[in-house]
Amino acid sequence: MKTCFKCNKEKELSxxxxxxxxxxxxxxxxxxxxxxxxxxxxxxxxxxxxxxDRERSKLPHRIAMNxxxxxxxxxxxxxxxxxxxxxxxxxxxxxxxxxRKCSECPQTKMIHGHHxxxxxxxxxxxxxxxxxxxxxxxxxx
Length: 141
Prior knowledge:
The protein is an alpha+beta fold. The protein folds into two domains: about 1-45, no CATH class; about 55-140, no CATH class. It contains five helices and six strands; from the N terminus they run ββββααααββα. It has helices at about 30-45, 45-55, 60-75, 80-95, 130-140, and strands at about 1-5, 10, 15-20, 25-30, 110-115, 125-130. Strands 1-2 form a two-stranded antiparallel ribbon. The mean pLDDT is about 95.
C-alpha cells in the first residue's frame, strides 16, 4: 500500500506508475492524479505541444515507423483500405463532394470521411478529426 501525495488516498501499489528512481520503485502520485495532471498540462499548453508533435513527426525514424504502420493496417484491413481509396478517387474525380465543415460540429479543418459500412464505400459521414476519433471509439465494444 502507498499514499498518493496529491489526493492523500491510500491505494494498492499497482495504482502507481513504476519509477526506478524512487525508493520503492513507484511514482509518488497515483495513476489517476498523474493522468489528471498530464491532461491539465496538455490543455494549458496545447499550441506549444501540437507544434512540438508536428516537428517530432518529421523525424526520419518516426516517418519510417508511420509507413510501416500504414502497410500493416492496409494488409490487415483490405476492405477499409479499398473503401478509403474509392472515396479518395471519387472526391478527386468530382463524383463525390467533400463538404467544407464537419457534420457534427462547426469545425472546418481536417475533414475526414467516416464509413459506417465498408461494403458501401461511397456512403460516408464527413467528420473533423476530433469527431471522427470520438465516433470510432464509440463504435468499439
